[in-house]
Fold:
Amino acid sequence: MCDFLGVAPPDGPWFEELSNAIVRGMDAGLEPERAEPGIKARAELSRMVSGWLETADEDGFLCAARAARAQAPEVSEAVLTNSLRGVLHAGYESVSRLLGNALARLVDDPALLDRAMAENALDPLVDELLRLDGPVQADARACVADSELNGQRIRRGEVVVLLLGAADRDPEVFADPDAVDLTRRKGAHLAFGRGAHACLGAGLATLQLRAVLSALHTAGIGFRPQGPAEYEPTATLRGLRTLPVAVSEPAASF
Ligand code: HEM
Structure:
């Protein structure tokens, strides 16, 4: 993400702590004590991004954002830095979690990647991994007009929580929803949300997962589980804490 933004990476452990506080803060509706550390961490990362705006490389995303703002003075400094902090954080946490979740599935089903490659179905595999193992389990929308949905009244101003992870396994939409099916209709999942505020980085994230899967396949690296995968105790973002595996040398087999 720092290459993409055009800046040098921050100190790893420092960033990781703030980033985790933000992720935990997303669950504040369930665990209110997670809210405040998340808000503080957001503010701290926004300060870092604000400093970056002065020094970022000419050819990175931050520099392009700075130039775009010069054409749109109505966008305040705070909106710019908070949005760019959102890009940094979403780009880092979501993609790293997706890659981990996807790897856990490949460890469980070692023939899956070879099967997809043999069927020329890398893109459908990427789509299925996003559907089944997408890191963003829930999203929210504020209702702008009194509405009714499935007999449920929703008043203007109320916030509706959308369980994307559940929608992506809805048996009325996806037959045999828990199975990887490389023939499903492309892009039917909600892993990146939908509408005006759908994920800005969907293309970049898809590219990264595709690149990692291709590289693993080309290198012929194999994985063997060495213990159960453990997930972080978070609800909104789903990701691994540990995935113990043995990694085979390229072209070797277990
Ligand atoms: C696996 C990777 C990713 C997943 C699953 C993901 C998922 C999502 C989801 C579900 C949303 C909310 C969409 C909605 O409310 O309809 C979102 C928003 C967003 N994502 Fe991602 N994202 C990923 C990677 C990225 C990357 C790489 C970037 C940046 C380069 C990024 C930047 C953003 C931003 C800025 C928003 C807010 C958009 C807005 O509110 O208008 N995301 N993402």
Summary: The pocket of protoporphyrin IX containing FE is lined by residues 86-87, 90-91, 94-95, 98, 134-136, 139, 191-195, 197-201, 204-205 (CB under 6 Å).
